[in-house]
Amino acid sequence: MTGHAAEISKSERFEFGANWTRFLSVLDEERIEQAKKSLKQMLGVEDMEGKSFIDVGSGSGLFSLAARMLGAKVHSFDYDPKSVACTKELRHRYFSDDPNWKVEEGSVLDKDYLNGLGQFDIVYSWGVLHHTGQMWQALANVTPLVAKGGKLFIAIYNDQGGTSRRWIIVKKIYCSGWLGRFMMKLLFYPYFALGRAVADVLKRRNPFTSYGEYKKSRGMSVIHDWVDWLGGYPFEVAKPEEIFDFFHANGFTLLRLKTCAGGLGCNEFVFVNKASEG
Ligand SMILES: C[S@@+](CC[C@H](N)C(=O)[O-])C[C@H]1O[C@@H](n2cnc3c(N)ncnc32)[C@H](O)[C@@H]1O
After folding, report:
1. 201 phi/psi in degrees, rounded to 5
2. In this structure, which of 104, 190, 244, 257 has its CB flanked by the most CB atoms within 10 Å?
3. For ligand 1, what atom is nearest to the CA of residue 108?
4. Structural domain of residue 227, as residue ranges?
């Protein structure tokens, strides 16, 4: 047994694809619209006609689908065979036999694979590179994929110091087997639910509709995001300034930044590749 399957059997990796498979059962048109909206807002575009788009770590395939619907020529890949199957399922549902949407299994840590892909107008890797086990290598590996003048849209977990280190322990226990999963869900689901209830009161949100409203966050689903958060291992984090400095040193300019205000979650960055412009 090698690669992904071996990492799962050694409890070194969360099975993201299994969670995305469950997510596909709640995917509806509203979530797809929210995914398209999130791409348009962050990238500052109305459509992607004539653009090439690579989805590094495509997960459910929702953002590949959104990009294809916006007119881009899409290449999706993921390390988890079940995530690849989800992305293929969405292509089958919405763009069957489409030559402008390629889906395959691959790793962002595999330089030989990446070397054969060429360059893209938009490189999208949301919530992926911190789950590879080699985040800084993965960040370096995506930079050559961005065409001159092209955009890189990434989301990376925020570094909360000691709190982030403690979450690693939770994730390791979650991935250790059924008992670990059961215990962490038992412990943290009530904690998350209570946190949401308090936030609903403070923000004057209706607690009965707020779970559905979560769709507005990139078309995602609360419960699937809780599972992804609890299990999501390997897990690394970075401060926004570390990500900025890294890409600045590599000839990229920051176009848009959305932080999680120092809390738990991802900071989102859109950079432009100015590297080879005169
Ligand atoms: C949290 S999900 C994010 C999925 C999607 N980008 C999104 O925004 O919904 C992380 C994904 O990264 C994938 N992944 C982890 N390591 C990877 C690697 N080395 N190469 C490619 N994909 C990887 C996982 O299999 C999983 O599908």
Report:
1. -65, -50
2. 244
3. 20
4. 162-231
Ligand 1 atom 27, closest CA: 59
The pLDDT tens digits of the residues spanning 160-209 come to 999 999 999 999 999 999 999 999 999 999 999 999 889 888 888 887 78
Pick from 78, 109, 217, 230 the residue to mutate for probing ligand 1's pocket: most ligand atoms within 8 Å of its CB: 78
pLDDT at 94 over 70: yes
CB 29 within 8 A of CB 97: no
Give nearest CA residue, ligand 1 atom 4.
59
Indicate the helix (H) or strand (E) that contains 216: none
- Provide the 10 A C-beta neighbour count for residue 27: 21
User: Same domain for 205 and 264?
Assistant: no
**Inside any domain, residue 33:** yes
What is the pTM for the complete model shown?
A: 0.95
Q: Are residue 53 and residue 139 in the same domain, yes or no?
A: yes
Q: Which residues have C-beta atoms less than 6 Å from ligand 1? A: 16-17, 57-60, 63, 78-80, 83, 107-109, 126-128, 131-132, 228
Measured in Å, residue 201 CA sits from the centre of ligand 1 at 33
- Distance from CA of residue 163 to its chain's centroid? 21
- DSSP code for 145: G
SS3 62: helix
pLDDT of residue 275: 67
